[in-house]
Design goal:
heterotetramer; A: alpha/beta; Aspartate Aminotransferase, domain 2; seven-stranded mixed sheet; four-stranded antiparallel sheet; 16 helices; 11% strand; B: alpha/beta; Aspartate Aminotransferase, domain 1; 2 domains; 12 helices; 17 strands; globular; binds pyridoxal-5'-phosphate
């Protein structure tokens, strides 16, 4: 039932409503609202019950294994949530004077330092509000760099075909044309094609490494050389940083700029779609262009450290601001707390154990007869299984497996991404899931494979145990219904 | 190993199955010389107890002041039920609802959110949120440029009374695509758009006009006239609005003869804590005919294969994960949890409650204005037509006064001198429903004392 | 799956464990533990997931209409929860000096005052930790009163047969014998039987009014006179105070002592079985005997109020302490906050609207053909339906209806209590449930009645939609399994 | 109307259906002259915002001190996951699991809790909780008297080293049934039971012996000898234990040759905040043979009609709602939510974690003891064999010293003079794992300064 179908004219959550407010106003009537906004009219209990029951219709990390590839659905420490909710943090106004900001500023500063260390870069700005905005900031810096050198001919960004959709979309938002380069059967970029693609028009390349194919791009150094030689810069899409934390650093691989998804690698909750945080890190060349605000500190003569905001006054060549305030400040804080909890060794172990789990899971799947898309490669933190054979022989698709998994109590892996692998499932167990969950998932896949062979209708009709059966997406788009219209009784 | 469940035995078992000797072997595709060195610059990890001690000390440093700063982020009472509900694990730790059948909770909630935002703005369609108000405005500008069939212009007209940081963000984002922004000048007397100046822009081709209600100074604009003017001159009209104010003020859908085309704004007043600036969320609503240019996710209602009602992502062909370089925006992760909280907030308050909060804020603001009248060194610069924010001019340096007030535990407002030097020593002050009369008196006292001390210092 | 079946040797929630703790101890080995306690060995994520999923197997106010009679399952304001969780309240040690206790003490004091007003009594102590302990305190005070008068002959407590089980159990815990008096067909006490029962051996009577029959005892004044004339005192079981808040006060009805269930009338959450809080209120005669601690205040010459604890030094005849500290201090606080939120008018409306809802619901049920146990009476905040006819004619019991209701998404009413009404359902909608929920419940009952007539096996087999079907209680008691024993592999 | 959903229309509809004119008519069975007058003594209601303001101010008054008080309530780190899980609406707002099929969450959790408490105490059976440690002990005493077949005595022997308020509570509860308590005297030198005195009690018939480990002073008792002695003289032995200490110390089930018969204690150290004294919970465990005398609820594992495992209330014939005047106790509502939190706590910590918390507390305690050594005016009165609490004797009035320390933001401990005058000016000090070395130094400084100021005052 929709919340709008729940209420009763004039009902409300009385305890939340200001008392004794005069309805007079000194405002001329032409400014005033005359219509009524049809918001819900329900009690506090009805509100709590409605949304509590809605929540129960979701899968989530707190309730299920959720091995969504490229999304790093790992445990979100409750301690980070609790610390970030301390009153001093929750009540701080973004424009509070620095005398009332030292606590928050110090967290920002410390996280900047940690991320520099983790990435091997020279500078970090935490202001981008998600991965895609981090990409935007990164590509805008590439543009600012070329513009700064009066190199206005560079109009293209190269993107491997396996790239996440945000990469080409971002390049366009920055005013670039996109040139795709193919990926070879072994998952690495087609270097020859890349060499042919670069030129004086190349502003840069956007890459993910490990790529969204779940493999490590082995030719990264040649790629870097190729692009750099052509005068372009290298952008690293750090959504998959989880795989290599502490093992290899983008800066050392030759990247000039990157973004990270703190809501993945740094374990902040995904919130059913956000918020995230997508800090950018840059090498020396791009330092002047970092987006503001950032935090910096001074040491006084007496040795006390004080923090302040860096804005365009201090950084005149900055690409500027991406949000009115300080990005997703609270997510930044949670990510900082995660780093504090893990520390040096803990961060290293993330890379190691997420890789271990993925390789173990891939091996189990492969031993069970599933086809790995890149069998001869190491898995990174994720791996791809392709269901082409099942699709061809049994007429059962990757999506059918995905939906049936829900009935077994597992969230589906990422389906049909990357687009270049047919009928693919991109599976990422993460380091926080136990061996028991991993094995349970594989067992479910084996059971579903049996069903696919003996009673494929079970898969076609799946899911059976969820609040709804399979939904009609075509109808949704054709008969667009995106806001409830009250039916007059 | 914090948060990693693997025991030594588990690790050994996994290595055996994989057929390698050590975890390090799994990284053997990475060239040896690229392997990272120990990250010595990062401190050792702390357990939760030790972490809480450190963070509590830091939070303490920023705590305890009485805040009269607004400037786009507003302190309202947040009902306890808002976050106790939004923080349920199933909302908090779910991903974007790609598997609709396992995400009906989030999907229905967003559908309800979309409905509420349409009601609030008086428009037909809402998306599922963008990052914040400022970046949302940038997206709205790009959307208007794509959508305006009458104009091929890549120029947009922005009112000078729109939040200066919004204008900066818009510029910093859209200029990458060669879009230019012109500014409608400010009437420094009335602190709103200079209507006299409109005619000078009529000869040029603009794709869109951006106006704010209330504007950055809290002043109400004559949005009816402006909307008609913009639309008459071929522009799509984008209204930047405070959703809380919309309970009291005419919503964008009702501006002028035909209503504004797009409404955008900061969702923070709807149940989100100040929290240093985020996570908040940007909302965008538009007329039905613009829906295919909408950036970000949209949820639609449909049926399942048994005909049962359900909800799903729709019009995905606008989005980057399908359309890649041809998408309406690069946005992927949005502000889902903030939207969840706002939806609970709006449900609790209802229209009547929202109106009462707006009215109470407005009345408190008027009360402070009246208390400031006649204080030496203070001039009220705002006209009477403000919402819950107003401008005062001081007889000395604003940032010093702010510092002196802060020492008394009062955060006096937003310093306008950096952004509007032409206004002189001006301070933007905000009052909402959370302030009591004695809070207002504390403000007055702190200001008076600061002005005196400032005078002594000179 | 049990949490014990979930773990792996040596696994733990590392982030919660003190670091760098030496295992040496200066303690002689004879004091030390040598065995291992077989506690779970799981990760933090496994913990959160396990208990989150367990919680999803519960009905609750937040998710369902829960019309459990005599239990007052109403909305628990989240604001009370939030305010009671303020750090100053959570971290206060029960033995903190009074200089660090003024905040908490003032809440205790104010709630005492409010409860005096609500009950019409002369004094209140908040220390009893639930209704039953409140009863204990009350009866112990009656005993102390008689003992104080050297009236040692009074060895009996009278209890109407409709009484809650805690009443007779309490009387025995205080060293009394219990004498039951019958209840008439109209729900009132059999006054003649009572008159015959009282005598010099009567210490007092324990009554609920409105009684657990869901009716108001109309002869209350005669009863009071009867018992008082015999030298006994009147105890009021205030579990049902919700029904009469602001409408009639126990003190005015002639009661000498009563307890209240703050976890019912004052809307503190039930927590799956507790905690509660059962303050006692007394008339003048019993003031000296109130249990400690209580709060009192002094006004200094300058007018500042300061609060302090009252203990046996100030109240030498007190029946003493019922807990080591201050009872369920946090529940007391939540109840106080509830009173602050409602205020004078709000409390009055509780009594009015809970009664209105119950009478409406009773009428709907009756109109639908269900048999009310006391048809000719006003319902109070609750009412009884009897399923004797269904049991006789269709072989379908009240319990069958109760279980089938779960399938309809409604928690069952209280079944088989009070014992004197055969096949009864005791139904209490409370004032916080909307008319929609009330009507929905009645519709479900009508649908189930249809099922009972046409397909009774649906009821016998119910529930079908819960994590388990009907459970075998006999096996549970016979083959007692009350703690998990690890099966050695 | 706060929390009441009925609109005027709803009310009218209900009245019409019922067939009365007004709500007041529904109360017409109440004699007119008994109807209540307006409750003028109660203030008007506040909305949530105003309430939060009042309560925040009050909470603030009690906040901010560094606490070294123990005496039965202990400050430990509480993992964030404990309460974020326990506070889920489905745990928080459910009733006692009378409808087992709709309460499997709570029921399975309690079964798991029972298992954990059996493991911790080394006994066979646990109930689902009683109110707190002290009232739990009273119930345990009543249980022992019912259960002791060898003795018809209504007398019980209580160690003088058991928490004085526990002894008071036990007395105030059980004396109503004519049960008397004798006290095993204290050895004021060693701060534990005077073993020399045992023989003088041997000639009397006692149903039970109550001893504590650690005892009220934090001192460890020779529980093996005492348990054997008690059982050899026909008593059931009841051990009052701190569950946290049981990770380090031999549990009751292993005391003496046959183990104690009943273990009881305060569950608060297992994840519950100090919170002015409650809600905490009392646990009771016993040997299998005593299970039918157990007070309170017990959950059992069983199967449903399809043979599927499930959980339900069992042995209800002991309880008041079935057995009424013949029940083992009058308890009904217990401490469910506190038990929920403790179960999550124990799951997170595991045995190893619990042990580490105990060890860290113990070590911090020893560290403070060593820092206090040699300070003038301070004598360490405890022997070396303490857990995380110890006694110091001061050269002046304890309550004054406590007040002077409080003025410095340090809550120094529990004043023993009221309860053990024979010990002189003694203070009971507690240190747990939450204290850092600099916290300990603050204690030492505050104490020194208080002693000096105290000296000046004299
Ligand atoms: C590889 C990759 N790049 C970029 C993104 C975009 O990040 P965000 O969703 O935070 O904008 C994602 C996340 O979905 C991703 O997986
Ligand atoms: C009428 C009545 N009396 C007494 C009690 C006992 O209260 P408690 O459960 O708080 O001990 C109850 C609660 O179940 C009750 O309904």
């Amino acid at each position: 039932m929709l919340i709008f179908e729940n209420g009763s004219k004039g009902r409300n959550a009385t305890s939340q409503i200001p008392q004794n407010v005069s309805e007079d106003t000194n405002l001329p009537s032409e400014f005033l609202r005359t219509s009524i906004a049809d918001l819900p009219e329900v009690s506090e209990l009805q509100t709590v019950r409605h949304f509590t029951n809605l929540s129960r219709k979701n899968f989530s990390i707190d309730t299920q294994f959720y091995p969504l590839g490229s999304c790093t659905m790992k445990y979100n420490p409750r301690g980070a949530q609790q610390a970030a909710s301390l009153p001093g943090f929750l009540s701080r106004h973004p424009f509070a004077p620095e005398s009332y900001s030292q606590g928050y500023l110090s967290c920002v500063y410390d996280l900047q330092q940690t991320l520099k260390e983790v990435t091997g870069m020279a500078g970090v700005s935490l202001s981008p509000m998600a991965g895609a905005q981090g990409e935007f900031a990164g590509v805008a810096m590439i543009k600012a760099y070329h513009d700064g050198r009066k190199d206005f001919e560079r109009t293209e960004i190269i993107v491997p075909e396996a790239a996440h959709g945000t990469n080409p979309a971002t390049a366009v938002m920055c005013g670039y044309k996109v040139k795709e380069v193919p990926v070879r059967a072994d998952g690495d970029v087609d270097l020859e094609a890349l060499k042919a693609a670069v030129g004086p028009q190349t502003a840069g390349i956007m890459m993910t490494n490990p790529s969204t194919c779940g493999v490590f791009e082995r030719q990264i150094e040649e790629i870097a050389k190729t692009v750099h030689d052509a005068g372009g810069l290298l952008y690293y899409d750090g959504a998959n940083l989880n795989a290599i934390l502490g093992k290899v650093r983008p800066g050392d691989m030759g990247f000039d700029v990157l973004h990270m998804n703190l809501h993945k690698t740094f374990a902040t909750p995904h919130g059913g779609g956000g918020p995230g945080s997508g800090p950018v890190a840059v090498g020396e060349r791009l330092l002047p262009y970092l987006p503001t605000p950032m935090a910096d500190c001074k040491k006084s003569e007496s040795g006390t450290v004080s923090y302040h905001w860096v804005d365009e006054k201090e950084l005149p060549e900055t690409i500027g601001r991406l949000s009115a305030f300080m990005g997703n400040a609270g997510i930044v804080l949670r990510a900082y707390i995660y780093a504090v909890l893990l520390g040096r060794d803990g961060l290293l172990r993330v890379g190691e154990n997420s890789t271990l789990s993925a390789n173990y899971m891939a091996k189990l799947m492969s031993d069970a007869g599933f086809k790995l898309a890149y069998e001869d490669r190491r898995a990174t933190h994720e791996f791809i299984v392709t269901m082409s054979k099942q699709a061809k022989e049994l007429d059962v698709t990757a999506m059918d497996f995905a939906k049936r998994l829900l009935d077994y109590g597992y969230h589906a892996p990422t389906t049909y991404f990357p687009l270049l692998v047919p009928e693919c499932l991109l599976i990422e167990p993460t380091e926080t899931e136990s061996i028991d969950e991993i094995e349970g998932f594989v067992k479910a896949m084996i059971a579903i494979q049996k069903e696919a062979e003996t009673s494929p209708e079970k898969l076609k009709g799946a899911p059976f145990t969820q609040p709804v059966r399979r939904l009609d997406d075509v109808k949704a788009a054709r008969e667009l219904d995106v806001a409830y219209q009250k039916v007059m009784e | 190993m914090p948060f990693i469940p693997h025991t030594d035995q588990d690790v050994q078992k996994m290595l055996d199955v994989i057929g390698v000797d050590s975890i390090d072997d799994l990284f053997d595709e990475i060239p040896e010389h690229l392997r990272a060195k120990p990250m010595d610059g990062i401190p050792e990890g702390l357990n939760e107890m030790a972490m809480m001690r450190v963070l509590s000390e830091r939070a303490q440093q920023d705590d305890g002041a009485l805040c009269f700063i607004g400037a786009g982020a507003y302190e309202h009472h947040i009902p306890a039920a808002v976050w106790s509900t939004a923080m349920r694990g199933e909302f908090l730790t779910a991903y974007t609802p790609y598997q609709a059948e396992a995400s009906q909770g989030t999907l229905q909630l967003i559908y309800e959110y979309q409905t509420m935002m349409c009601q609030i703005t008086g428009l037909d369609v809402s998306n599922a949120s963008l990052y914040d108000g400022a970046s949302g405005l940038a997206e709205a500008v790009l959307m208007a440029i794509r959508a305006n069939r009458k104009s091929k212009s890549k120029k947009v007209l922005l009112a000078g009374s729109v939040h200066p940081l919004y204008r900066k963000v818009v510029n910093d984002i859209v200029s990458n695509q060669g879009i230019t922004l012109d500014t409608l000048p400010l009437n420094t007397q009335d602190l709103c758009i200079e209507h006299e100046a409109l005619s000078q822009f009529e000869s040029q081709d603009y794709a869109a006009l951006v106006i704010a209600q209330p504007n950055f100074f809290g002043t109400l604009e004559d949005v009816n006239t402006l909307t008609n003017w913009g639309q008459n001159h071929g522009m799509l009209v984008i209204g930047v609005v405070n959703p809380m104010a919309m309970a009291m003020l005419a919503p964008p859908g009702e501006w002028g003869d035909n209503g504004a085309d797009i409404a955008v704004g900061e969702g923070q007043p709807l149940g989100l804590p100040l929290a240093s600036g985020g996570p908040y969320f940007g909302f965008v609503c538009c007329k039905q005919k613009l829906v295919r240019q909408m950036p970000g996710r949209i949820i639609g209602r449909t049926v399942d294969l048994e005909g049962k009602e359900g909800f799903t992502l729709t019009l995905q062909a606008r989005e980057q994960h399908i359309r890649r370089s041809k998408a309406t925006s690069n946005i992927c992760t949005n502000q889902g949890l903030a939207v969840t909280a706002a939806t609970v907030y709006l449900t609790l308050l209802g229209f009547n409650g929202l109106l009462k909060v707006a009215q109470a804020s407005h009345h408190n603001t008027n009360l402070l204005v009246s208390k400031l009248q006649g204080i030496s060194g203070v001039t009220i610069r705002s006209p009477k037509t403000v919402f819950h924010e107003f401008v005062i001019e001081l007889d000395r340096n604003v940032s010093e006064v702010i510092e002196l007030m802060a020492e008394q535990g009062v955060l006096g407002g937003f310093d306008l001198t950096d952004y509007y030097a032409e206004l002189g020593n001006c301070l933007l002050v905000c009052v909402t429903e959370v302030k009591t009369e004695s809070d207002l008196d504390l403000f007055v006292d702190a200001l008076k004392r600061a002005l005196q001390e400032g005078a002594v210092k000179c």
